[in-house]
Amino acid sequence: xxxxxxxxxxxxxxxxxxxxxxxxxxxxxxxxxxxxxxxxxxxxxxxxxxxxxxxxxxxxxxxxxxxxxxxxxxxxxxxxxxxxxxxxxxxxxxxxxxxxxxxxxxxxxxxxxxxxxxxxxxxxxxxxxxxxxxxxxxxxxxxxxxxxxxxxxxxxxxxxxxxxxxxxxx
Length: 170
Prior knowledge:
Blueprint: H1 3-11, E1 31-34, E2 37-48, E3 53-61, E4 64-72, E5 76-84, E6 97-100, E7 103-119, E8 129-136, E9 141-147, E10 150-159, E11 165-167
Antiparallel strand pairs: 1-2, 1-11, 2-3, 2-7, 3-4, 4-5, 5-10, 6-7, 7-8, 8-9, 9-10
């Protein structure tokens, strides 16, 4: 070990730089800032299956929970959703057109995924999750997810990735 290597070691210059956080590799505890609101990542759901990689982040802002869905293929698409109160008895009740609060949403894509979860999640890792994304003419999106008789409805909008700021947890 040379003289300069010893100096670097003393001052910690040889410590590995922390991995730069992106929408594809957030960790529980990271802070995501969007639309002038800071959210803490409380849970991560990785959807496996289909041609697109999808990652969902459960975000918490002083008790208000949101869901950030990130899809990456050639480009990254992100959607920020709020969970709404609605129920379905079974997944066959999802129609091509879904109406909520006077707005019609039309099915854009659907799928089935196995999931891996970290932190807080509405899903278990044993059973598949069935999901549907519907989009309104205004661009608003509805995400419906179903697993083992439990349905989650989310309403939100697409958010440009460059409008999201990430602060890595220490």
